[in-house]
Amino acid sequence: MKNNLAKSILETPRAVFHKLGLRSGLGPLSPRAVALTLFTTYLMLGPVAKHSDVVSAALAYGLLGVISVAAVVVLAQSLLLRRMQVALVPPAAESVSGEAARVAVVLPSARILPFTLLEISLESPIAEFPKAALRVTGFSAEERRLTLDLAFPHRGSWEISAIHCELRDAAGLVRVVWRQAVTASVLVIPPAGEESRLPLVSSTQRPGDMVTDTQNRQGDPFDIKAYHPSDGLKKIVWKAFAKRGELLSRHPEASMTPEGFVVMLVLARPEDDNACSAALSYAQATSELGLDIVLGCEGIRGRSPARSVDAAQTLLVDAVWDAQASAGASIEPDTTELIDYCTGLAAGLRVRKLLLFCAGSRVSGPDGARLLKLAAWLAAQGIEPIFALSAPARLADSRQRGLTRFLSPLILEEDRPTEAEVPAAGYQSFLAHCLSSQWEVHV
Predict the structure, then answer these.
(1) pLDDT tens-digit series, residues 394-403
(2) Which of 88, 119, 242, 405 has the greatest number of CB atoms lying within 10 Å of its CB?
(3) CA distances from 416 to 99, 236, 421, 424 (A)
(4) Residue 25: its pLDDT value, please?
(5) Does residue 99 sit in helix, strand or coil?
């Protein structure tokens, strides 16, 4: 215990001194250099001016010399490095959220003097853009190709607006910063989902929904019907005639194929990639069966619903920032827009069932009330809502009361969850309301 306490006491000044070299200070001088300059000024005006301390004089002149040399070296070198053009090469293929995306930075031949380093990072107007930096040192007469591995937290088209360059000395006393504007983006898609276990649902109905498949006639060859002279003698079931005295004939039953669309609405904000993955897996499964899909999403904002799996993936990626900005307020308008789109696909077409893909973590908060209100409105329109929820990572039990709620984190040592806990009461209340309303829920 004493060793840990002493170690923490010693590490606190080190951490403070380290941060002083990273934050912005006075012009090219870092806060660390400003602090050392003030200390040098104190020594020069105090002990050195009175000729009372030789050690103070040596320390003051030494610090002043170090800061001056560092400033001259860094400033002069920055004038040369500012002229070089740094190239940025984003990934050619689509990246997956949560996995490392490799971005290449191409640096022309450059000479970084000893005891100095060049730090390169990427800037984006998106606040959630992952932070990473490259440190370049030494001489190189050839072009350098460096890579940054960035793990993006969710799907979307992540814009890169500038390359941030910072030249500083190894002691962190002086630094010069400049930016090079670029236009690039990294396309990030949701992770691949598991094989869908949802039942096949035909969402639309219209007259003539059942049609005969004339190209692939199948059926039980022993289907029986009353005999007609056009059937011929070969199809008569003579055993039935011998027992019952009634003429019956065999005939093959034509296979029937349903026409219609599978209509899906994906309610997914940036943090709800699991719902997107489940929707894309279901769309892939239905497409492989030869059924048509119509997929809309939260934040669609005037975009056309998707009619294929690739178009659905593109739509979910493009609409992610609009879904984040709407904060759940666009759920009802997006649903109405999707239904109107399906109605206009064919004359007499009417949506009977709507699959709602949503993250289970959203149903326990204000979005849960919005979803129940939306489901009630759909039911009033004669449309059956079917919820496909991605199970929440962790349900929080709120039954702890009093001192137990505050003392348990102090007594019991447990790992903190990486995702926000979902209140169990709100989640169970949503499921109970769906059950009482006889709405299907698949988790």
Answers:
(1) 555 544 454 4
(2) 88
(3) 22, 75, 10, 17
(4) 47
(5) coil
Q: Tell whether 198 is covered by a domain.
A: no
Backbone phi and psi for residue 202, each to the nearest 5 degrees, phi listed first: -95, 120
Q: Take residue 436 and report the two structure tokens written for it.
A: 């009482």
Residues whose CB is less than 8 angstroms from the CB of residue 156 and which lie 6 or more positions away in sequence, other chains included = 126, 188, 270, 317, 320, 321
Placement of tokens 């505050």 in the chain: 406
Please name which of 438, 330, 307 lies closest in space to residue 384, comparing C-alpha atoms.
438
CA distance 396 to 404: 15
Q: Does the structure show a pLDDT above 90 at 159? A: yes
Residues 292 and 417 in one domain: yes
Tell me which residue range forms the domain holding 226: 219-253
Residues 236 and 316 in one domain: no
Once rounded to an integer, what is the mean pLDDT over residues 9-28?
50
Mark whether 309 and 424 lie in a shared domain: yes
pLDDT of 123: 93
How is the chain split among helix, strand and coil, in percent rounded to 5? 35, 25, 35
Give the three-class secondary structure for 269.
coil
Distance of CA 39 to the CA centre of its chain: 49
Tokens of 208: 């003539």
Of 272, 439, 263, give the one whose Cα is nearest residue 367: 272
- Residues 253-309 have pLDDT tens digits of 544 344 567 889 998 888 888 889 989 999 998 888 888 889 999 888 888 999 999
Domain termination site, one of 38, 57, 81: 81
Angle between helices 309-318 and 273-288 (to 10 degrees): 160
pLDDT, tens only, 205-263: 544 443 444 444 444 444 677 777 777 777 777 777 777 777 777 765 544 344 567 88
Residue 393 is given by DSSP the state S
